[in-house]
Inverse folding.
């Protein structure tokens, strides 16, 4: 048998590969796909590692996807040029209690924590957000950090590295439908903010999400919810944590991020804020911002019932910070 | 450090360039040893100490065994080596398992004993390097080999980074002989090595992680009763995933070693084309099955004693082989089932093996498919998070679920899985008696180039959630 001609093979292969990737990239860009960073545990840990450098005036944002899509950290930066803010909210992973628990018990941070929760998540015993925390403590090695940095840099430059724009989708659409795949309407940036561009979304798809979420809330409204007393009892786990954080000079602010008017109609039936949210924040002795108390926070259009469009992010954040201004004031007795 | 990471690509490129730039052979070996420790330490630096303990202990004990005049002294040193190696493995790998089962046992007999969980972190690759160092000491004890003259070579044998964390499990004779002569840079080695790395990454990143893992997880990551199609779809997906994940790692390891001028043993040889289970274990994780054969099955008596004793030896070997994979009863059941298959096969061969019918290719194909189906069924115990989950899936696979199914998988996932498994089976059956090198040589060079391009393109453009290699946990 003849020996294998490795020289020819490894001259041709990289050339063909570059052509293939170039075509891939051009097709995706033509279809308006965009580069996006993968929002995973490594990105979370990368941001979380910054907590060591934060001072008493700095801000940590916890919660879920509404926080990631709704708040614009550049607006924070403009409003408070000398204060840092980091986003540790986790999309689709329930309550942020495990993250606050780790901040309180395993860091020296004594600044401001803004927590986005709902009446449902405040009583949740679900520890999904703990997964990322464990990853930071056990797996986020120097090697992983380095690999993550390279990965983020490449993902921010090339569309073909966006998992939502993978080649299986590209060629699958081209072969079966003779058209390029529709671009995905959200993207993640290195601060972990999500930019939701509903102008890119397929209206039918969006309507389906809207209907299914609304149906879910409607069904929930038909079920009996906990009595306010029982509910308050089930939120008790927050008390000791918040007290501990207060005792070292930290401040906690709870927020309820906006939802669509249709959705709000049902959610306010399930857990009226006077009976649930307000007693909770009073008991904890913490300030709060509830979107429904402010028309300029509740009049945004939320096409999927839950998340703001990227174009509204800045205006919402400005209005949000205005409501927060008293709570975010620098206390002269607090040292950095 | 994972083969499927950017940092490994940079690390490996720098290692190859520096390695071949160093002139003295001893200098190169020292360099390889240092980078191997770095490779291991980036995961969890303190655990390098365990590697040192294992290396120094086996080096010393094996020398003492060789120097001992009396067999009693030899036995003492062997026991000391076993205590150190298996003690470390037992503590780190089975500590939690032993504690949990002790608590369960004590509670069952009415003794209240509930200590806090031990939370022991499993050092990556401990099962692999422990078996490797043990084989050296055992070979010296059994008189198969003599102590090696260079501690540097021995340390490199234990630590050689391409196979350190997930095999292949290398025998000292095979590796240490290769440390004798200086490796000269050969373009064809680099060409072949990089091609193998590409194939391994394709198996891991594209087939295992991007295409099959999500289907597997849709069955195993949720609790409840699966539908018939979900049970089969998820199980078939795991059958493909575990092969591509582990064979992918071994292929990358072999390719990486070839680039550095070393040859590692083959670890997989188209296992899903196996006709029967003895054939399966000659093709699946070959370096583990030969290790278990040489250091457990044969010392137990192998097939040299009575028929019953042979069957018992087989069962012990397979049960311990199952336990080697993980500290859970599901792994023991998986190993036990394979033991039963081997025992039954041995019996059937004895009474029916002389029939001419087994030589017909159609019958052999049917037997191969039957072996595959049983293998697939048995993987359920390997992957399941609990015995209950495994039973729920097995019942659903035979349409025997008594409760309504709540786990379903999409038609698209099912089709993708079936297509991949059929392609995999086809490839395994077609090339069952050939090596990768023979297959590559049978095609024109441009076909190989096109295949490599397609694989690299898929690796670059098909991304999935970042996953470690499954066998790292063993």
């Amino acid at each position: 048998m003849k020996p294998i001609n490795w020289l020819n093979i490894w001259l041709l292969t990289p050339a063909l590969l570059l052509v293939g990737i170039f075509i891939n990239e051009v097709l995706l860009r033509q279809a308006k796909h965009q580069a996006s960073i993968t929002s995973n545990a490594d990105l979370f840990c990368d941001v979380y590692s910054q907590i060591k450098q934060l001072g008493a005036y700095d801000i940590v944002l916890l919660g879920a996807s509404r926080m990631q899509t709704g708040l614009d950290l550049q607006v924070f930066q403009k409003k408070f040029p000398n204060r840092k803010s980091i986003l540790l909210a986790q999309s689709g992973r329930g309550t942020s209690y495990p993250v606050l628990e780790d901040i309180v018990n395993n860091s020296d941070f004594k600044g401001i924590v803004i927590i986005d929760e709902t009446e449902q998540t405040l009583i949740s015993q679900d520890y999904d957000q703990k997964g990322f925390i464990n990853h930071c403590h056990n797996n986020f090695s120097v090697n992983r950090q380095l690999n993550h940095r390279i990965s983020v840099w490449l993902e921010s430059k090339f569309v073909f590295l966006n998992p939502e724009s993978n080649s299986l989708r590209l060629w699958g659409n081209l072969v079966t439908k003779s058209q390029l795949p529709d671009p995905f309407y959200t993207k993640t940036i290195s601060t972990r903010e999500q930019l939701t561009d509903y102008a890119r979304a397929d209206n039918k798809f969006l309507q389906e999400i809207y209907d299914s979420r609304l149906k879910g809330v409607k069904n929930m409204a038909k079920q009996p919810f906990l009595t306010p007393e029982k509910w308050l009892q089930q939120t008790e786990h927050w008390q000791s944590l918040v007290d501990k954080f207060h005792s070292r000079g930290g401040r906690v602010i709870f927020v309820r991020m906006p939802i669509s008017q249709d959705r709000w109609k049902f959610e306010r039936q399930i857990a009226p804020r006077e009976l649930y949210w307000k007693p909770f924040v009073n008991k904890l002795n913490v300030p709060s911002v509830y979107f429904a108390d402010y028309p300029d926070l509740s009049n945004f259009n939320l096409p999927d019932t839950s998340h703001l469009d990227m174009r509204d992010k800045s205006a919402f954040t400005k209005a949000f910070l205005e409501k927060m201004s008293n709570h975010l004031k620098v206390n002269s007795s607090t040292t950095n | 450090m994972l083969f499927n990471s950017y940092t490994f690509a940079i690390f490996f490129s720098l290692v190859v360039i520096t390695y071949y730039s160093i002139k003295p052979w001893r200098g190169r070996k020292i360099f390889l040893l240092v980078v191997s420790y770095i490779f291991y330490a980036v995961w969890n630096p303190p655990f390098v100490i365990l590697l040192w303990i294992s290396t120094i202990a086996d080096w010393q004990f094996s020398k003492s065994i060789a120097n001992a005049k009396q067999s009693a002294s030899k036995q003492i040193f062997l026991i000391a080596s076993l205590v150190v190696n298996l003690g470390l493995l037992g503590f780190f790998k089975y500590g939690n398992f032993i504690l949990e089962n002790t608590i369960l046992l004590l509670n069952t007999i009415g003794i209240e004993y509930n200590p806090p969980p031990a939370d022991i972190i499993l050092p990556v690759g401990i099962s692999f390097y422990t078996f490797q160092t043990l084989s050296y000491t055992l070979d010296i004890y059994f008189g198969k080999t003599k102590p090696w003259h260079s501690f540097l070579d021995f340390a490199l044998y234990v630590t050689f980074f391409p196979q350190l964390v997930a095999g292949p499990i290398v025998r000292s004779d095979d590796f240490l002989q290769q440390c004798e002569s200086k490796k000269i840079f050969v373009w064809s080695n680099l060409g072949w090595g990089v091609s193998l790395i590409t194939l391994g990454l394709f198996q891991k990143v594209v087939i295992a992680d991007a295409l099959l893992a999500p289907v597997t997880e849709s069955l195993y990551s949720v609790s409840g009763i699966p539908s018939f199609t979900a049970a089969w779809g998820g199980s078939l997906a795991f059958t493909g995933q575990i092969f591509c994940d582990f064979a992918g790692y071994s292929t990358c390891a072999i390719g990486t070693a070839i680039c550095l001028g070393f040859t590692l043993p083959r670890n997989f040889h188209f296992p899903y084309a196996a006709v029967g289970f003895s054939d399966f274990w000659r093709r699946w994780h070959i370096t583990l099955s030969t290790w278990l054969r040489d250091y457990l099955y044969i010392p137990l008596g192998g097939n040299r004693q009575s028929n019953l004793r042979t069957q018992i030896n087989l069962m012990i070997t397979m049960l311990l082989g199952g336990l080697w994979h993980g500290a859970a009863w599901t792994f023991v059941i998986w190993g036990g089932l394979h033991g039963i298959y081997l025992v039954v096969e041995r019996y059937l061969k004895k009474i029916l093996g002389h029939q001419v019918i087994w030589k017909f290719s159609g019958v052999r194909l049917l037997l191969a498919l039957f072996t595959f189906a049983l293998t697939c069924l048995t993987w359920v115990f390997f992957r399941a998070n609990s015995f209950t989950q495994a039973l729920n899936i097995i019942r659903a696979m035979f349409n025997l679920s008594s409760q309504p199914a709540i786990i379903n998988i999409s038609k698209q996932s099912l089709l993708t899985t079936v297509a991949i498994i059929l392609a995999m089976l086809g490839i395994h059956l077609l090339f069952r008696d050939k090596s990768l090198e023979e297959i590559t040589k049978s095609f024109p060079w441009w076909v190989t180039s096109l295949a490599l391009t397609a694989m690299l393109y898929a690796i670059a453009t098909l991304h999935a959630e970042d996953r470690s290699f499954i066998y790292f946990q063993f």
